[in-house]
Amino acid sequence: MSSYKKAYIAGGCFWGMEDLFRSRPGIKDTEVGYQGGENDNPTYQNHPGHAEGIELTYDPNETSFKEILDYFFRMHNPTTVDQQGNDKGSSYRSAIFYQNEEEKAQAEEVIDIVNNSGKWESKVVTTLEPFAPFWQAEENHQDYLVKNPNGYTCHYLRFEDSYLKTEV
Questions:
Q1: What is residue 168's predicted lDDT score, i.e. its pLDDT?
Q2: Where is the Peptide methionine sulphoxide reductase MsrA domain (predicted)?
Q3: Measured between alpha carbons, how far is 47 from 165 in angstroms, rounded to an integer?
């Protein structure tokens, strides 16, 4: 497990993102939570400025940060500011919380690929934000769609084909 890495992303309600990522090759664990906001120990009722995000633990021998971002950009709409589906507000922004300059550069590269793909009518508005503490959400939010299979989600695979093709 010491060779595992973590990635931090936000793309709308964290329930649907977690549900889709949990079955991806190389993803070893998922946690939903709050990131990039104004207060410590945020809660669902009090998380000003925080995005609903996800912490992905992954094996870099099985998947890459760029492959994670490729899937991320195919399972939510990265062209809407502070909105996914019916959810509106900065909590639902599309964001990548990069941990180092290499991740930032890879995120910029993937965003360019997505923008140049022509798959979206508008340009990507996903923010690149320096890593900020990730605060785990309450237990009732963890694995929400496993516990509540008919629960709300606005996430689904919008494009089958990878943006990356042979670029990985």
A1: 45
A2: 6-154
A3: 37
Is residue 154 annotated as part of the catalytic site, yes or no? no
- Please tell me the distance from the alpha carbon of residue 26 to that of residue 115, in angstroms, as a whole number: 26
Please identify which residue in the block is written with the tokens 């996800």: 54
Strand positions, DSSP E, 12-139: 27-35, 51-58, 83-84, 87-88, 94-98, 127-130, 134-136
Task: Read off the tokens for 150.
Answer: 């008919």
Task: Quote the tokens at residue 132.
Answer: 């900020």
d(Cα 22, Cα 147) in Å, to the nearest integer?
A: 14
- pTM recorded for the entire structure: 0.95
Model pLDDT for residues 120-148, shown as the tens digit of each residue: 999 999 999 999 999 999 999 999 999 99
Per the structure block, which two tokens stand in for 23? Answer: 């079955």
Cα separations in angstroms, 131 against 31, 71, 88, 128: 16, 20, 23, 9
Q: What are phi and psi of 28, to 5 degrees?
A: -100, -25
- Max Cα-Cα span within the chain: 43
**What's the CA dihedral at 67, 75, 90, 137 to 10 degrees?**
-80
